[in-house]
Design brief:
The chain is mainly beta. Helix content is 0%, strand content 56%. It is globular.
Length: 118
């Protein structure tokens, strides 16, 4: 049974930083890629960043240069370091994981709220 639990969200002023963590429980062997999505009120859920088991990263254009995704396989944890936060970054952030052999993300966390005040 795969379970993802996010933490680290909160309220921060514009220009500030936050680090989100996603703890993964289950067999990491079956997971190929992990990532973060976000959903603002009345908007669709959008990709923020992904990282493969080999360490290849991908970012949405809106966060390039400000956000960094990383993973600690020994701790079964994925991180999202968010710097230079803007009010547009306000959203619920979801951790996600993709099972090997699949082309879509299969597992999702419950989400953590990030609010950036201007």
């Amino acid at each position: 049974q795969v379970q993802l639990v996010e933490s680290g969200g909160g309220l921060v002023q514009a220009g500030g930083s936050l680090r989100l963590s996603c703890a993964f429980s289950g067999s990491m062997f079956v997971i190929d890629a992990m990532g973060w999505y976000r959903q603002a009120p009345e908007k669709q859920r959008d990709l923020v960043a992904t990282i493969t088991s080999g360490g290849t990263t991908n970012y949405a254009d809106s966060v390039k240069g400000r956000f960094t995704i990383s993973r600690d396989n020994a701790k079964n944890t994925v991180y999202l370091q968010m710097n230079s936060l803007k009010s547009d970054d306000t959203a619920v952030y979801f951790c996600t994981a993709k099972r090997r052999g699949f082309t879509w993300f299969n597992y999702w966390g419950q989400g953590t709220q990030v609010t950036v005040s201007s």
